[in-house]
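Dear Dr. K.,

Following up on our conversation at the group meeting, I've run the structure prediction for DNA repair protein RadA from Actinopolyspora xinjiangensis. I'm pasting the input sequence below exactly as I used it, so you can double-check it against your construct before we proceed with anything downstream. Let me know if the numbering doesn't match what you have in your notebook.
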Amino acid sequence: MATKNARTGRAGYRCTECGRTVTKWVGQCPECSRWGTLEEAAAQPAALSKVGSSDPGSPARPIAEVDLESARAVATGIGELDRVLGGGIVPGAVVLLAGEPGVGKSTLLLETAYRWAAGGSGGRSLYVTGEESAGQVRLRAERTDSLHEELYLGAESDLAAVVGQVERLRPGLLIVDSIQTVQSAEAEGTPGGVTQVRAVTTALVALAKERGLPVILVGHVTKDGAVAGPRVLEHLVDVVLQFEGDEHSTLRMLRGVKNRFGPADEVGCFEQGDDGIAEVPDPSGLFVNGQQSPVPGTAVTVVVEGKRPLLAEVQALVSPTQMSMPRRAVSGLDSARVSMMLAVLDKRGNIKTGDQDVYAATVGGMKITEPAVDLPVALAVASAKLDVPPRANTIAVGEVGLAGEVRRVNAVGRRLAEAARLGFEYALVPPDSGRAPAEIRAVEVSDLRGALRALRG
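The predicted structure tokens came back this morning:
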């Protein structure tokens, strides 16, 4: 039976995802619409009508007198990770790194611990593993050449033991792999449960703030790719990073989801190999086919991930179908926007694909969701339908509306500068996109018909 509130006499149930409290149990949370997340909550104390005062632990000071050095970001030694973190990791910050099993989270963090210890900027590093034995981590460190005398390794699953290791070693960086395997004797529940994860994370956050110790936590993900555990876990930490990758590709993408100290939309690129993980500071070449002459059904564009422009290639294939309902297969693109482009091509561009199969994909496993890829998708489908190759050394950028108009997108100047740096000579852009670099000729197209006419120059 649910716990009664002392004043109201009503039962309380709390959502483990968003924290919403309701008086009676329901299957679906009315706040976050998650199913099966309401659990019995303890009785809440009565509201305080009067609060006494006490001496503050640290008196308030004028903002101009607050020391900035204690909040300066410290470089980890891995440029792509520092880019996503906003220049480095801030002392006392707690970072949550989430990703699917086998994507390379442990390898990346072991390399981070090695670079931190070898760089000497933050002293020694402590890597605590609760999923593997110390011998297994040592084997990985030998394989990736990540051994250093200032890199300490501990195999612990008890929170008190982890805190004891920190007290003894006083490291400059703490890595816990993973937060779901650490438990506290003072909290109820099983390891990895909602109560345990919340209690352990809260204790580690308090430890980080008290000592100015940067902490990186590894988190598991659910089947739909979200961070496992209660939603409050993401609110407790300062930075949330998502490590993504395809099992059939060596490319790995590190995305910032939340960052209190820098941009929350940056992306870092890595390549997973047999000897560890390596940075890819210039990944544009990974997302382009690299053929000398263009072929029908291709279009090159420049997407912006955070502040970084990346070259990307969209491919399309249109073929006759033998079925009553044509097939639509999409990989790396938003299937809803691709379907919308097919409808706009049919109505505004006289490119009929209603009786044919259409396949659309990106090169290199890249995922593109921004509207600026609308025009490249439309041109790739039209090129495949007409069996006409696009003009050589040409990129296309623009959002396409339902009326067939080409709309402006952000950061056109940076996109064109990146295309010019990689040797492209022409660009199809929306009207009023600003001044283009001298190395590239920008052709403004106001609607889809104009873009189709410019397809072959």
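Two things stood out to me. The two ends are 74 Å apart (CA to CA). Residues 1-9 have pLDDT under 50 and may be disordered.

Best regards,
J.T.
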